[in-house]
Design a protein that fits this description.
By secondary structure, the chain is mainly alpha-helical. Helix content is 89%, strand content 0%.
């Protein structure tokens, strides 16, 4: 993937993660949402690793 695509993906993941964390802190999240959050965090780490590999 190009650097621009990786950066865009990273930003989108960060926004989704932030939204779920805020929701979790305010009201709690379901087990399904929690698993989704964990998967997005893994994807963010992978994306970050790929971005660092392109530099």
């Amino acid at each position: 993937m190009s650097q621009a695509v990786l950066e865009r993906r990273s930003e989108m993941l960060k926004k989704h993660i932030q939204h779920l964390l805020i929701q979790d802190n305010q009201h709690g999240i379901s087990r399904q949402q929690s698993k989704f959050l964990q998967q997005m965090i893994k994807e963010l780490h992978q994306t970050s690793h790929e971005m660092n590999g392109h530099k």
